[in-house]
Design goal:
heterodimer, A: 66 residues, mainly alpha, elongated, B: 409 residues, alpha+beta, 3-stranded antiparallel beta sheet, 9 helices, 53% helix, globular
């Protein structure tokens, strides 16, 4: 169980870095081009969801193994 | 509009069906849920996100119809009121009872923490008998449940789940086709949504050419947002064909997410049930692959301009795996987000009981920060309800867009 929990934590670190950089770049892009805020927000949420997907697979595997 | 309703009905029918298979996905909840003695936050959280055969609103327990089928005894249909359910805050005669337990066994079925279980032993009487409590044991990784009847322990079995043992369920001696708490909420929301959209469509027809009034303004802004931000950019000129599907997905998920957020109203965790999200994801999977054109299948199975060995050993297997991973992540994302939200709320509220184990002062002292934290989490959860409905819809639209894109090279 504890090993699976560590694996889950590692997966969350990866997803955190990924979603963080997605958010940071989106902020930068909005600052540079405030009129495109709608498009950028939509793509940001989509990309964040895709990054999250990888973490979810890891978390479910951790549940199944642990 | 008609297509919209049709899809809605399909959702309803199929989700309901799959409910029968999987009563609860939170499989871990132990029996000992007593708020008074030995408060266990983990088991309380698991109990509160699980499905139930009784609808508890505050202190009132509303019995729901049970439709049970077992191979030995055939079909049994009765109200879950037959189990003599203990009221939510009612007095407990003895230790070892929790709310949602039934004091009686009926036709070999018992109600343990809101869930119907069956006595395996064939010598157990079939008529309504009074039982003396439940025992939960953990043997290694397996959870075992027993009921006490006339000083003897009888082993209990959970209903069959459709997960084939992956999440701790699997095939048992009986199937639960009951109208559970989640199924009731889902029916309620479907009726509400159906009524809402039909009356909205009617008012648009009567008011043609004039500005919308009242609640139509709210719904129209959401509707147009999904149409312009999700359907049109991802689906190109085919957006009208898939709009009913996307809209029913969005409003179904949003309605259930928001309904689950209403405190003291049963707190049904419908979109946080793996069976429901699985059915939604299966719909996306089928829609994507049945609408996929030649171009899509070519790029999935045998993409042009890549060496054959690379396709055979790496790319095609990965792409085929991707076909299934996409709906699986859709399913898990919605399930995980909503379940996590419900659990955090229960655990924050549980802080009061956790600190208040010893004395009253600590429980009053912790009630203030716990209340503020819960309020904060609830506002975040309102945001999450919208975001998750939006994410599910936008990902479905992007998968559909990928599958129906015309070749341009």
């Amino acid at each position: 169980m504890s090993l699976a929990a560590i694996g889950m934590g590692l997966a969350v670190i990866g997803a955190g870095i990924g979603i963080g950089s997605v958010g940071a770049k989106a902020m930068e892009a909005i600052a540079r081009q405030p009129e495109a805020v709608g498009d950028i927000r939509g793509s940001m949420i989509l990309m964040a969801a895709l990054v999250e997907g990888a973490a979810l697979i890891a978390i479910v595997l951790a549940f199944l193994v642990g | 509009m008609r297509l919209f309703l049709l899809t809605f009905c399909c959702f309803l029918g199929l989700s309901n069906f799959s409910f029968a298979g999987s009563g609860s996905s939170g499989d871990d909840h132990s029996h000992d849920d007593g708020h008074g003695h030995g408060f266990n936050p983990q088991s309380t959280a698991f109990h509160h996100i699980a499905d139930a055969n009784v609808y508890g609103i505050g202190p009132i327990n509303i019995p729901l119809p049970c439709i049970l089928y077992s191979k030995d005894d055939g079909l049994a249909m009765f109200s879950s009121g037959k189990f003599d359910i203990i009221p939510h805050n009612g007095p407990r005669e003895t230790e070892g009872w929790a709310h949602g337990d039934g004091h009686a066994a009926y036709q070999k079925y018992v109600l343990n923490s809101g869930m119907v279980m069956r006595v395996v032993d064939p010598s157990f009487p079939a008529e309504k008998v009074k039982i003396d409590g439940f025992i939960h044991k953990k043997e290694g990784k397996k959870h075992k449940y027993y009921t006490v009847y006339q000083g003897k322990e009888y082993e209990l079995e959970k209903s069959t789940t459709a997960d084939f043992g992956v999440f701790g369920g699997g095939f048992t001696s009986f199937y639960d086709f009951s109208l559970t708490k989640n199924a009731t909420s889902m029916l309620l929301i479907c009726l509400l949504m159906g009524w809402f959209f039909i009356s909205m469509a009617r008012s648009y027809k009567n008011n043609e050419g004039r500005a919308p009034t009242g609640a139509n303004n709210l719904m129209e802004s959401i509707f147009v947002f999904i149409q312009d931000e999700v359907a049109k950019p991802f689906l190109g000129h085919k957006w009208e064909q898939f709009l009913p599907f996307l809209m029913s997905l969005f409003f179904f998920i949003l309605g259930l997410n928001l309904f689950g957020q209403i405190p003291f109203l049963g707190g049904s965790n419908v979109t946080g049930n793996l069976a429901v999200t699985a059915v939604l994801a299966i719909f996306t999977f089928l829609m994507t692959n049945f609408n996929g054109n030649k171009h899509y299948w070519e790029h999935t199975l045998w993409m042009p301009g890549v060496p054959a060995w690379l396709k055979l050993f790496i790319l095609t297997p990965v792409e085929v795996l991707g076909l299934f991973i996409k709906p699986v992540t859709l399913m898990l994302r919605l399930f995980a987000n909503i379940t996590a939200g419900h659990m955090v709320l229960v655990i924050f509220t549980g802080l009061i009981f956790l600190f208040g184990k010893e004395n009253l002062g600590a429980s009053i002292g912790s009630a203030i920060p716990a209340g503020i934290l819960t309020l904060f989490m609830m506002s975040i959860e309102l945001l999450v309800a919208f975001i998750q409905a939006f994410v599910f819809t936008i990902l479905t639209a992007s998968y559909l867009g990928m599958a129906t894109e015309e070749a341009h090279h």
